[in-house]
Design goal:
The chain contains 8 helices and 11 strands. By secondary structure, it is α+β, with helices and mostly antiparallel strands. The chain has 2 domains: 3-31 and 200-355, no CATH class; 52-196, Galactose-binding domain-like (Jelly Rolls). Strands 1, 3, 4, 6, 9 and 11 form a 6-stranded antiparallel beta sheet that branches. A 5-stranded antiparallel beta sheet has the order 2-5-10-7-8, with no helix packed on it. A hairpin with a 2-residue loop joins strand 3 and strand 4. Helix 5 runs parallel beside helix 7 and helix 6 (302-324) packs antiparallel against helix 7 (328-368). It is elongated and about 105 Å long. Mean pLDDT is 82; it is low at 267-273, 377-386 and 388-392.
Length: 392
């Protein structure tokens, strides 16, 4: 393919990508996605205090339990206020909620205010509100999108709401409000939890968007392989992206058994270990991808390959954020992706140099080898080929 034709294809791909990005943004951010049912399910959402609870050192409203040390939770009217001055501990309140059958998403809302909240070392050490479904063993399922309130700093009271997904088969979920190893104050009131049902019109448009992205990515993959300088590496890179994308859109019922196979690697007990192992897996995947893409596009400038992969990674994280929200963990994932890309492309660049070195060495050897010479240029050959003169 000529350089002019390649430039036209690239411009076409960019325009189609911009169009699909705009359509995706319009559908997922512009359309009404859910129809909400009546509120309920939370026991004592207004933090009303029972008379018996006043007998305890630190009264707790019925339905709620304390997590963390004494003296951290106070109640005034229908407001809960959590204070923490020790960044080594987490403080909060929580309750287990009974969920209605067949509902996979809920809208949680409430009035939220934070004052001088300072986060800890890890990205989840912040003021947080979480709704996490519980499996049959009663353990929280952090695989579903559960990003709710997650913030630091100071912000006046405002109305907050967010859609959160739960396991389809989950009968219970845990609602927690806490300062997770973060200092400062968080105040919450007027909590609501409403079932959210996806609208049929949105499902139709979402299907169109997904099919459009699949066709575009398929065409880009075919073009990438057809124009690659090293097709085996290009096929491997496209295959890796295909498997990763397919895994991302699989239903959780199919993904969960596969994830269970790698849980021992991800650290079952320590949350921070599990999180950082997850970031390491992101980096490792992009190390492999960066290496393959650099080898496949060895004729392109290295900076061009780097920027293209960083853009692909950023677009993937942003598209994910349209449905699940974005948090500090996504920013850390993107940072891990970029580190993996730099390492992978660097390793691929070294491999490309070795390939060029071996090719030049092979050409020099071939040129200097007697077997590579024209037999007619070999001394004595012409004399040997001349017929002997017949005797007179």
């Amino acid at each position: 393919m000529s350089e002019k034709a390649t430039r036209r294809v690239v411009v076409g791909i960019v325009l189609l990508t911009v169009f699909m990005s705009g359509l995706t943004l319009l559908v997922f951010n512009g359309m009404a996605r859910y129809e909400l049912g009546p509120p309920g399910f939370i026991v004592n959402p207004d933090f009303e205090m029972g008379s018996d609870e006043l007998l305890y050192d630190e009264p707790m409203p019925p339905g709620w339990t304390r997590s963390g040390r004494l003296g951290s939770a106070t109640f005034s009217g229908n407001w809960l206020m959590l204070d923490n001055g020790d960044p080594r501990v987490s403080v909060g309140v929580e309750q287990v909620i009974d969920l209605p059958p067949g509902v996979e998403a809920f809208e949680i809302g409430g009035m939220v205010e934070i004052q001088a909240v300072i986060g800890g070392e890890m990205p989840w050490h912040r003021a947080r509100i979480d709704l996490v479904s519980l499996n049959a063993a009663g353990k929280p399922d952090f695989r579903r999108p559960h990003k709710l309130f997650d913030a630091v700093g100071t912000r006046p009271a405002y109305r907050y709401s967010r859609i959160v997904e739960v396991m389809p088969e989950a009968a219970q979920a845990r609602l927690s409000i806490r300062l997770a190893r973060a200092t400062g104050r968080i105040a919450v009131s007027d909590l609501t939890l409403r079932p959210a049902y996806e609208r049929a019109e949105f499902q139709q448009m979402a299907t169109i968007v997904k099919v459009g992205w699949a066709l575009l990515l398929g065409l880009v993959g075919l073009w990438f392989v057809a124009t690659a300088a090293h097709r085996p590496a290009a096929v491997a890179a496209v295959g890796l992206l295909f498997v990763g994308g397919l895994f991302a859109i699989l239903p959780y019922e199919i993904k969960d058994p596969i994830i269970d196979l790698i849980l021992p690697v991800r650290g079952r007990q320590d949350f921070s270990e599990r999180e950082w192992t997850g970031h390491a897996m992101h980096a490792l995947a992009f190390v492999v991808l960066g290496f393959l893409v650099r080898v496949a596009r060895r004729r392109d400038p290295m900076i061009k390959v780097l920027l293209a992969l960083v853009l692909v990674s950023a677009v993937a994280e942003l598209l994910q954020a349209l449905s699940t929200g974005i948090g500090m963990d996504d920013l850390y994932d993107e940072l891990a992706n970029i580190i993996g890309i730099v390492v992978g492309v660097g390793a691929g660049e070294e491999q490309v140099r070795r390939m060029h070195t071996r090719r030049r060495r092979h050409r020099r050897i071939k040129r200097s080898s007697p077997r590579s010479r024209d037999p007619d240029d070999t001394p004595g050959v012409e004399a040997a080929r001349e017929p002997e003169s017949s005797p007179v």
